[in-house]
Design a protein that fits this description.
The protein is α+β, with helices and mostly antiparallel strands. It contains 12 helices and 9 strands.
């Protein structure tokens, strides 16, 4: 294993950081989250058009750059560092890999090039607060009960003249209020023979109602979608194993989320170190006190360890190796802990201003708490990884 980054990978990070430093400062960030979409469309156009961000991990035949999960994770680390509210996670990390894995030739040809160019945004809609379960990060439901179990509730799909119709409601859909294409997980076949399939729903489809929800983390906008006999297209064919595809997606998503959390943790720690070096108490900088040094040193070690785990998870997802199946979930758990620690230290060591809405420290703390609610909690990520690795099984059983 060569752990060094290539020149191209270093250039992606450097160029993206320069752009985000110029276009996604504190004022621009606050203005973006207050828009109806929850992100700056001009910034997304620049990220897509100038840097090709949404197509980094897509093959060149689909209009992408032909990169791997590693390049996408490095991009997520930089967007996480700036807390940039963009459709990158929903579109490139969650939706595009499913289209690539399950889509028919016509679906891939019609949808992936506009996604790679930034002209089409997409979102994955999983019924209930079960995104982490659907991605097999905190559990593995082989029957897809999280999607409604074929009973009332969740999302149901049935055949209609000329296609399919979906009915139900999904909350907490990342960018679900603004995405132009929705990938909806729905049960079909009734209760006795139900199974989960993925369906494509256009943002302007009849019977679709969407609204942005108030989220703990405003930089991670979420929407509620309601489907009332909405026309939909089946993603791939009925023989496709949607549950297996979602579980495989979990490794990629976890690696990117871990890198994103590490980027945020590193940035809030940098700002905290800078501040305690300037703020004076008792005639000397706060950062010169030994107790403060110890706390920041502990947080630094935790962030660096999480960064190493995130990089390994990205490498493992790009080039799967035996025994690396749990790398994503473990890296995500470690990164979320590091972000929570760094954000908490940032709020406290900034003193009085750290607790105000005007300061940015609370945004990092909310990102840590919001991500753990969506993709955790940490102890369940680790428990799932332990189960998958058969850590607690007795020999011979």
């Amino acid at each position: 294993m060569d752990a060094r980054f290539t020149d191209e990978q270093d250039e992606i990070r450097r160029t993206l950081r320069d752009l985000l430093d110029k276009r996604c400062g504190p004022q621009e960030l606050r203005a973006a989250v207050d828009t109806p979409a929850g992100h700056d469309r001009a910034l997304w156009t620049a990220l897509a058009g100038h840097l090709g961000l949404p197509g980094l991990a897509l093959p060149e035949t689909c209009g992408g750059a032909g990169g791997t999960v590693t390049e996408l994770a490095l991009a997520c680390e930089e967007t996480g560092r700036a807390l940039a509210p963009t459709p990158l996670l929903a579109t490139a990390v969650l939706a595009a890999p499913l289209l690539l894995a399950l889509g028919t030739g016509a679906q891939r040809a019609g949808l992936l090039p506009p996604i790679a160019s930034g002209g089409l945004t997409a979102a994955l809609a999983v019924p209930g607060p079960a995104l982490a379960t659907a991605l097999a990060l905190t559990g593995h439901d082989r029957r897809g009960q999280w999607a409604g179990g074929g009973r009332a509730g969740g999302v149901q799909a049935r055949r209609s003249e000329g296609g399919w119709q979906v009915y139900g409601q999904v909350d907490q859909v990342l960018d679900g209020h603004s995405a132009e294409l929705l990938l909806v997980a729905a049960h079909t076949g009734g209760f006795a023979r139900s199974r989960v399939l993925l369906f494509l729903v256009r943002g302007d489809a009849p019977g679709l109602t969407r609204a942005r929800q108030t989220a703990l983390d405003a930089t991670r906008p979420q929407g509620r979608i309601q489907l009332r006999d909405t026309p939909a297209d089946l993603l791939g064919d009925e023989a496709a194993d949607a549950l297996a595809a979602l579980a495989r997606l979990g490794d990629t998503a976890a690696a990117c989320l871990a890198a994103e959390a590490v980027g945020a943790a590193g940035r809030v720690l940098e700002r905290t170190v800078e501040y305690v070096g300037q703020r004076e108490q008792f005639g000397r900088p706060v950062g010169s006190f030994q107790a403060v040094k110890h706390r920041l040193a502990d947080a630094y070690v935790q962030v660096q360890a999480a960064r190493s785990a995130a990089y390994y998870a990205a490498w493992a997802a790009a080039a799967p190796a035996p025994g690396a199946e749990t790398a994503g979930a473990l890296a995500l758990a470690q990164a979320l802990e590091a972000l929570r620690r760094a954000a908490a230290e940032g709020v406290q060591l900034h003193g009085g201003i750290g607790f105000t809405w005007e300061h940015e420290a609370h945004l990092y703390f909310k990102r840590a708490a919001g991500d753990e609610l969506l993709f955790g909690p940490v102890h369940r990520l680790r428990a799932r990884a332990a189960d998958a690795a058969h850590v607690f099984e007795e020999a011979g059983t």
